[in-house]
Specification:
With 178 residues, the protein is of the alpha+beta class. It is built from six helices and four strands. Helix 2 packs antiparallel against helix 3.
Length: 178
């Protein structure tokens, strides 16, 4: 029998093989980059990063995520809010913050808002326990307003939840503030 119908395929030249592999890799990387670059995704990621930084009590990271123009629903500016957060969350021994039902909406210009509840797990001093119980019992979500400063950098400009009353800190009671 004559085997004249055998198929002989020459391998692709190396430059063409690497070109195909490179195109596939670039396509996957480009798709991932495009997905991450979406403002909704960035706001979600920044909100999660903020909650994780508070959970770890990484105040340097929190500070980089909060805008210098920050003003919240309780009348605190950036410096006051960071000091308040350090005192409250510093009382927790174990601390876990779990975001729930996050929704992201884009506003006009380079603004967006994350609306979510979160569950605080942990215990510690009296203010820590009071904060945990109050936050976990809220019937209204928190609203975090973000402003894009650079292409992929967002800063928190406002945090609010009208149903939450902030307790006085011992330092505030002594000074008769708030």
């Amino acid at each position: 029998m004559s085997s004249s119908s055998h198929s002989s395929s020459a391998p692709l030249p190396p430059w063409l093989r690497w070109g195909l592999v490179g195109s596939v890799v670039l396509g996957i990387a480009g798709g991932a980059f495009w997905h991450y670059a979406q403002p909704e995704r960035q706001i979600r990621a920044h909100t999660e990063r903020l909650l994780q930084a508070v959970e770890r009590r990484d105040w340097a990271q929190v500070e980089t995520l909060v805008a210098d123009t920050y003003r919240d629903g309780w009348g605190l500016d950036k410096e006051q809010a960071l000091a308040y957060s350090r005192e409250i969350f510093g009382q927790f021994l174990p601390l876990r913050i779990r975001p729930q039902e996050m929704q992201v909406q884009l506003g006009s210009g380079d603004q967006g808002q994350a609306t979510l509840w979160f569950i605080i797990e942990g215990s510690g001093g009296p203010l820590a326990n009071l904060t945990r119980d109050q936050v976990n019992a809220l019937e209204q979500p928190f609203r975090l307003t973000w402003q894009r400063r650079k292409r992929y950098r967002w800063e928190l400009t406002r945090l609010e939840n009208p149903a939450l009353e902030l307790p006085l800190l011992p330092s505030q009671e002594q000074a008769g503030q708030r």
